[in-house]
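Weekly puzzle thread! Below is a chain. First person to post its structure in token form gets bragging rights.
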Amino acid sequence: MHPMVKSALRRGWRDLNTVQFGMAPAHAIVLGPVDTATGSFLTLLDGTRGLPLLRDEARRMGLPDGHVDGLVERLARSGLLDDATGGGPAADALRGKQAVLDRLRPDLASLSLATSAPGEAIERLAARRSLRVQVRGAGRVGVVLAALLAGAGVGEVHVRDGGRVEPGDVAPGGLSAECVGERREDAARRAVRKAAPDRRPRHRREPAPHPAEDRTPPSSEPAGRTCAPAGRTAVPPDESGWSLVILAPRDGLAVHAPDPAAVEPLIVSGTPHLYAGVVEGTGVVGPLVLPGETGCAGCLDQARTDRDQTWPRLVAQWRSGGRRQAQACDLALATAVAGLAAGHALAFLDGMPPVGAGTRWEASVPTLTWHARPVWPHPTCPCGAAGRGNEEHTPEDRGPHETMAEQQPPAGSRHEAHAARLSGTWRAHV
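Winning reply:
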């Protein structure tokens, strides 16, 4: 182990014996009491020395035996310590790609603030390289979102869409004006490759399981075989194997009132999926659907029908109407949606608690004030999420602006363990 104080946090002395790491209240930590010699020793925790050398340095500075080990343990327990050599073989491989790591250092620094164990940040960053994400939609939201994921180190980001690039698809960070007239998928792939810090391996590999879960089939069926529940069709081969699918349709209706039938293969295969888009000047991010555990498109549709019996009639008219010449989707809102969706996606892919599960974030122009609206599992939805202990929740249980702090993974779910692991207060925040 080569201990290092997390470089993402700036250091300042509140007094002679109290040091503060970090400026922003979300991650700032106050540590004390710290004597003068220990304060000087902290500068040696830069990742260039192993513990034996650090012990020798401490003796030369007059610090007692055992002081270094106690300090390292204390800093690790506070979440302040990283390991310059930790993270396992995948992290070592990433360190071997110096140019790639240099591109990703800001992401690594950010991950260090969201993780506690030394070496955990680079381990998660390296794990992104084995993940596969599909983005469905190559418009102002979808391509920017895909480029953000690729730029953050996700190994494979595929964009799926039809038709050719139109002038209204062009967006900074997404499709350029030179792409107008080209096939959307081809243009999107180039944007993703350009954003990625390095090229993914050319050979095809088996998709890696999500780091937050074990995807071993629960039944006795052999791995790789997809079994459909009674009454449902089997999953097409191209619908499974994704770590996450993001639905970012160019038509805002498909995110405002998503069609449950369109994502049934994702529900059947157990593929997590996230909605993101803009409809009539309102940005929507979510829900993040964990099939069989959290509210899905079908739950949303049935809950709306419970509240408004005319909802199915309205949706049928909207879907059968003629295509509008231009969607109300300004660049600032589309970029904000892509950024928030990418943040939720990366947190989930990194194995963090799925805070966006069962929730839709909405913001409208011109204020862009985000509101969280719950999507509860519906007892009559065939997705089965209500059977995981959420039957007691109804849309009327909470107000329309329920905060994310009230959202929890379903009891007993495979994502609950991650939430429990990170929910404890191990930092003294300021």
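Puzzle host: Confirmed. Bonus trivia for everyone else. Residues 3-123 form one domain.
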